[in-house]
């Protein structure tokens, strides 16, 4: 048994009672330092019990209840009454980004002790220009790629659009200036990943782009490098100088990158600083959280050629006249499907409508690993008509570097199963555990610490400083377990995460793809274990398809669950997965045949014609997603091999597949749902 996760104050072996575990834990005496936290919770537990670290993780108002429950080993509220369960609240759709509506509009710190003290994020010493605040060491300190990096070459690539710029094979072919090229080298990137090979020349040619590639395959550099190159090469032409209005200075970034979460914004900002290191280019960041408001605004004063922001805070700053978007030549939506779903779409429209050059006068790029068809359709509003669509692998597929394990685990057995997983985990690995609710995250982290497993949590109810510190303590390995809500599902790149546990599965298979994508990044291998039970039947079929597609073993019970015919993962219906390609290809799957570039000898070339099977029966311009989608899926899925091509299984999928559309969308009756029905309802 590995014991490094365990920590105790007294050095004695302990045996847990009342939970059915009898493991003995060796002691590491590494109780977390209390001074990471800002106190105020001492009444909730005895400081001498060694768990003081837990208390600040409990949101105010819940501390006493949770502490009492934990201290007495009362089961968590999660397992108690329905009423209590409902008191917990999902992190899925809120608190990703504090915005004006949360009361932070005009917040100026008044003694919280956080701001103006130089604290500015876990890894960073500030948000200022790219050169000033970072050192070469903390920007370029790790080698990223794993043993499967070269296998990216074998992933088939679909590119569509008019006169698509030719892909590059090497970074040296991109025409980067010496400073950018040097930063590529400093980063240890010896060759571009497929998404970079195509996206970089496309954006360098100022073409709009919708770019879809698996998690961890290098999308960030794919948009940052060409933007930095453009701004550097364009010089003052590219930069609108600040203006004075009513005594206030307004700054005009040349490029805007929008991120759905604060931590992802921080990460992208650091990447931007990395690639613009030792240049005059200034990067800036704006994201929610009251403690960092003034600091962020102050740092804008040194200029902001590239601004990375979360939408709510950006709107707030725009409304105050501190930022103007009329100089913005580049707009990037990272995690674009999330940015355009119902939670963020109004904010994105507002931002784009606030003086930003029209789409014909800017370059717009969208990146994600998943891109449901309904969101692709929405995305059109922001893209020039002749945008380039790029898909590396099937859109929405999981990385084959991730070993996906599914366990049937009833609610009451989840903790025990998690303990078993953690006990068998290599102590040098980081483990990311996803739960559904903020309270669930608190409870589980608290529980694990009581079991002497060093854990921290991250969710939308923590103060921003706690979020960042907890994330950093996880990243550094000091606390090797992070219990997270969906706030950590997308984009985060933490090198040593070797295991993701879906303690609570999400209701949406795209969310699953992003969550497990926190491991198995950049050619490294990872494991994703998901606890499945009756509550998750809705996602069963989608999960089965993802696992089959990744050539992995499907448990017998999952075959059964999938066959039961409960369709669709919570939000958008299961069938959307099979429309996951460029929706503009609406005239029969056959058109796919000639449009894939095969980067490797082992890529399944023959598969790409698979859509032909559907060409006849689904053709027609008014059903834009249907045919291409099936074609792409059947071709890329190594296991389906024609199984979708009109045989019995296909028939099963087609009939009544789409709940929202009354079965019309993919159904054989040919009816077409109105576009506004494709808006995904929130789970
Ligand atoms: N060409 C390259 N060579 C080596 N490492 C690379 C290269 N490109 C990117 N990386 C590294 O790969 C890791 C994953 O990259 P990145 O975070 O951009 O992935 P992503 O595709 O945006 O993932 P996600 O979908 O989860 O957001 C990072 O650590 C990055 O530094």
Automatic annotation (TrEMBL):
Compositionally biased region (Gly residues): 642-654
Q: Which InterPro entries did the record assign?
A: DEAD/DEAH_box_helicase_dom, Ded1/Dbp1_DEADc, Helicase_ATP-bd, Helicase_C-like, P-loop_NTPase, RNA-helicase_DEAD-box_CS, RNA_helicase_DEAD_Q_motif
Concerning SMART domains, the annotation shows: DEXDc, HELICc
**Record motif Q motif, residues:** 169-197
Q: Where is the signal peptide?
A: none
* Keyword annotations of the record: ATP-binding, Helicase, Hydrolase, Nucleotide-binding, RNA-binding
Coiled coil ranges = none
Where's the DEAD-box RNA helicase Q domain? 169-197
Name the PROSITE patterns for this protein.
DEAD_ATP_HELICASE, HELICASE_ATP_BIND_1, HELICASE_CTER, Q_MOTIF
Helicase C-terminal domain ranges (all copies):
401-562
The terms under GO molecular function for this entry are:
ATP binding; hydrolase activity; RNA binding; RNA helicase activity
Q: Where is this region: Disordered?
A: 1-55, 625-683
Compositionally biased spans, kind Polar residues = 31-52
Gene Ontology CC: one annotated term: P granule
EC code: 3.6.4.13
- PANTHER family noted in UniProt: ATP-DEPENDENT RNA HELICASE DBP3
Q: What is this protein called?
A: RNA helicase
């Amino acid at each position: 048994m590995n014991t490094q996760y365990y920590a105790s104050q007294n050095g004695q072996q302990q045996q847990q009672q009342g939970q059915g575990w009898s493991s003995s834990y060796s002691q590491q005496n590494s109780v977390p330092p209390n001074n990471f936290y800002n106190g105020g919770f001492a009444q909730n537990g005895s400081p001498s019990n060694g768990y003081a670290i837990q208390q600040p993780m409990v949101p105010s108002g819940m501390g006493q209840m949770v502490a009492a429950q934990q201290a007495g080993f009362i089961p968590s509220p999660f397992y108690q009454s329905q009423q209590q369960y409902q008191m917990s609240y999902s992190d899925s759709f809120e608190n990703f980004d504090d915005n004006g509506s949360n009361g932070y509009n005009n917040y100026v710190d008044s003694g919280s002790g956080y701001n103006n003290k130089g604290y500015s994020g876990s890894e960073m010493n500030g948000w200022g220009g790219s050169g000033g605040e970072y050192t070469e060491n903390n920007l370029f300190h790790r080698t990223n790629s794993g043993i499967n990096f070269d296998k990216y070459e074998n992933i088939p690539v679909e590119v569509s659009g008019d006169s698509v710029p030719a892909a590059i094979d090497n970074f040296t072919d991109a025409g980067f200036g010496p400073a950018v090229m040097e930063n590529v080298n400093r980063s240890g990137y010896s060759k571009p990943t497929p998404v970079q090979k195509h996206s970089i020349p496309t954006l360098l040619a100022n073409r709009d782009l919708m770019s879809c590639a698996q998690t961890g395959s290098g999308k960030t550099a794919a948009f940052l490098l060409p933007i930095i190159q453009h701004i550097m090469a364009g010089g003052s032409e590219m930069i609108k100088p600040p203006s004075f209005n009513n005594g206030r200075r307004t700054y005009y970034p040349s490029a805007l990158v929008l991120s759905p979460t604060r931590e992802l914004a921080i990460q992208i900002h650091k990447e931007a600083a990395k690639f613009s290191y030792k240049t005059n280019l200034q990067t800036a960041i704006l994201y929610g959280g009251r403690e960092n408001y003034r600091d962020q605004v102050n740092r804008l004063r040194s200029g902001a050629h590239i601004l990375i922001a979360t939408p709510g805070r950006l709107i707030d700053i725009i409304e105050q006249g501190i930022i103007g978007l009329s100089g913005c030549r580049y707009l990037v939506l990272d995690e674009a499907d999330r940015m355009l779903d119902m939670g963020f779409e109004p904010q994105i429209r507002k931002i784009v409508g606030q003086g930003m050059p029209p789409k014909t006068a800017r370059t717009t790029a969208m990146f994600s690993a998943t891109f449901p068809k309904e969101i692709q359709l929405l995305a059109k509003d922001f893209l020039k008509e002749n945008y380039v669509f790029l898909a590396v692998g099937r859109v929405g597929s999981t990385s084959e570097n991730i070993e996906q394990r599914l366990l049937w685990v009833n609610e009451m057995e989840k903790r025990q199963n998690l303990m078993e997983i953690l006990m068998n985990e290599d102590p040098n690995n980081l483990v990311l555990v996803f739960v559904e609710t903020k309270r669930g995250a608190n409870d589980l982290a608290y529980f694990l610490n009581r079991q002497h497993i060093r854990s921290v949590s991250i969710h939308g109810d923590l103060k921003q400083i706690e979020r960042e510190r907890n994330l950093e303590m996880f990243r550094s390995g000091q606390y090797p377990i992070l219990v997270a809500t969906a706030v950590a599902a997308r984009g985060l790149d933490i090198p040593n995460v070797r295991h993701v546990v879906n303690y609570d599965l999400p209701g949406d298979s795209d969310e699953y793809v992003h969550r497990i994508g926190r491991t198995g990044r950049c050619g490294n291998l990872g494991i994703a274990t998901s606890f499945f039970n009756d509550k998750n039947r809705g996602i069963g079929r989608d999960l089965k398809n993802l696992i089959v597609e990744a050539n992995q073993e499907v448990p017998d019970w999952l075959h059964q669950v999938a066959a039961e015919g409960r369709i669709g993962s919570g939000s958008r219906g299961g069938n959307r997965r099979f429309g996951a390609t460029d929706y503009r290809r609406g005239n029969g799957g056959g058109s796919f045949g000639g449009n894939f570039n095969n980067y490797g000898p082992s890529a399944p070339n023959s598969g790409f014609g698979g859509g032909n099977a559907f060409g006849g029966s689904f053709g027609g311009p008014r059903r834009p997603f249907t045919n291409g989608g099936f074609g792409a899926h059947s071709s890329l899925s190594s296991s389906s091999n024609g199984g979708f091509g009109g045989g019995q299984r296909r028939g099963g999928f087609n009939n009544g597949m789409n709940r929202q559309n009354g079965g019309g969308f993919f159904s054989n009756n040919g009816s077409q749902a109105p576009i506004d029905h494709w808006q995904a309802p929130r789970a």
